[in-house]
Amino acid sequence: MDAGIAAVLGAGVGTIGMIVTGWTARSATKMQMRNESLRERREPRRASYEAFSSAVATLHDHLEPWVNFGRLLDRSRPSGDERARSASYLKHSEFKDGYVAHAIELADEVSRFGRHVVLDGPAELEPFVTKVTELSSGLVAPFRILQSFARISDEAGDSTVAYDTSAFPEKLKQLDQGVREFLQHASTALDSDVAS
Hints:
Blueprint (H helix, E strand, L loop, with lengths): L2 H71 L8 H4 L1 E5 L7 H22 L5 H14 L1 H12 L7 E5 L3 H28 L1
Antiparallel strand pairs: 1-2
Helix pairs in contact: 1-3, 1-6, 3-4, 3-5, 4-6
């Protein structure tokens, strides 16, 4: 082979090698930047999903003994009315100090962390968050009434609130099931971020 042709071929191969090396380096850099971007987007989402589910679990654990046992003890008032028989009679003074306020704080945390999830997205999670926050709010509704009476009355510890709590055991189960559904969809959302 002629030395001139060999030099031209060598230069051509060298040029092609430099082009391939440059293209590979740019592709690796793009892939690294994409992975970093996904991680930066995924971590706040994951943290807000975890905070929301933890807040729901804490509320559930706080309310469970009262829903399953304590509210039944509050049905002591006799009445012939069927609706009155399903009501629990709640007195602020019959709850351990701080129980009512803590239940309300926990429900407010569920709502606050739920808003974070909705803001972090994706939008497909909003119905699951709404379901859980509405159940949380419904479960603490009698406590909000008690707290309102405490604010407007000097005798709040002696005031009694009648509230139909007959659906509360089912609502507590729905709360647990709702947060599980949320976590399944949240996990799918996080996995789709990685796959895309």
